[in-house]
Amino acid sequence: MTRPRPLSPEPFLPTLLLTAVAALLLTGCPEEGAVCTSGLSVCGDACVDLSGDVANCGACGNTCGDGQTCQAGVCDCRPGTEACGGACVATASDVANCGACGNACAAGLVCESGVCREGCSEGSLRCGDSCVDVRADVLNCGACGNVCPDVQTCHEGRCGYDVVAACYTHGQLVGIQAGTDQLGPRRQFGSGVQTLASWDGHVLAADATASKLLQAAGGALGTVVEEDSLGGVAGSPNDILVDPPYVYVVDSVNNTLQVLKREGPSQGAGLGLRTVTQVNLGANTSPQALAKWGTTLYVPLFGTGGSMFQFGNAVARVDISNPEQPRKVDTISLTGLDLKPFDGGTVLPLPYSVAATESGVYVSLTNLNPYNGYKPNGPGMLAKIDPASGSVSAIDLGAADCLNAGYVEAVGDQLVVACLGEAEYDEANGHSASAVRASGLVLVKNDAPVAAYALKAGCEPGTPGCNLSVASRFAVAEGAVYLADTNAGRVFVVAVEDGRLVERRGFSSPQALGPALEACPTDPRRPVSNAIDVTALH
Fold first, then answer.
1. Is 280 part of a structural domain of the chain?
2. Where is the signal peptide (predicted)?
């Protein structure tokens, strides 16, 4: 099941309006006198990503050799291969370099998993003098000689990225290979993608501007293979929940829950979805996210300032025992919790995200004061709901580590919470963050915080060109969190261990394998780059 990717519309409205306008200012296709969107350059009559395009690596026309990929504008051997005598080879299957460069197999033998053998074992296919698993071999994916491009992985005989991030400001998608944490080239996609999900090798992207649910194959991020209407009215589709054969989408502006069903390919190579119903959850409820527990959907209701939040600060329960006839059962209030307000000031729960586990349903609480610029006025918190009784208890995530609790997801028997923090924005500099505190991740085990990870920018705040990082949403792949940065467009990679959060790509630890990934780079024209969501495909 794909996890939800919520978005609160009101607290972040200024930034989202700015980035929405910015995303529409430039197009992805150059014309005479025009420029490409951020991170892309004009080569001939096309906009290309010089940092990741094998045909234009670092410069227009600089083509990488066979078996190479382009990383940060430099040609190098693709993951799964290594340089042997000036060529990139797969030592797991290359008969002339079996297991190591120069280790040639004797005549009549084949190379399988880096070992010379007389023949292929069961489950392997002979491709030339090599035995390969075409279900997983990036050089023979699905068939002999079918090479996966750039940093794509072969899963069940199909090439695709492991992780995909959406760049809201620039209207782009970018793929990431899990484990190696290498970036693929950026691709133009949609006009206002706001949230992502994945299903059966496809990326599902809710486009707020077009009011459509767009689909792309996991290995061809620049091509829309299917589009389905999201009600036809522009709104704020915050969250996609995949529960085969159904897909659920909530919209916080239109207050709707839409149900789509997969009925087989009907538009090219897409999944073949059709809307079976759409229900209104109530005026001014502003539904944020979705989680399924049994046959019930749990939907955090943020509420709206225009109604003084009287229809929010709660969680709706929707019966989907018949998914094609969803029925709102009741609403669980969150206002009775001790929110630990700072200095006894005003604070509201204002729920943001939700995750369902065997032990209960967990709802993240932003704890903001909507009457004072939506500033945090209490620690980031989780509300735990007992599905059987409906009772609610609170978990304090600690104000020093977490303000403005955002996206939450279960990782094994632990919970990871993204803390959006408290940020100050410089309107004179494109509404970019000028100061940030208590933004990062918190790890929760046995209903108590056990570890925290603070986002850092790798530069001194206030220095020219220093773009601070503000946590957004994340995806989990191969035991690591891929955390999006809503201000500087980065993706941080943090491994989740038992009771520990270990930085793999970022600026906080000298033991990190490298800096945070520049997934959605900023430029002088757009100091803000909103990496708005991340989804894992495998």
1. yes
2. 1-22
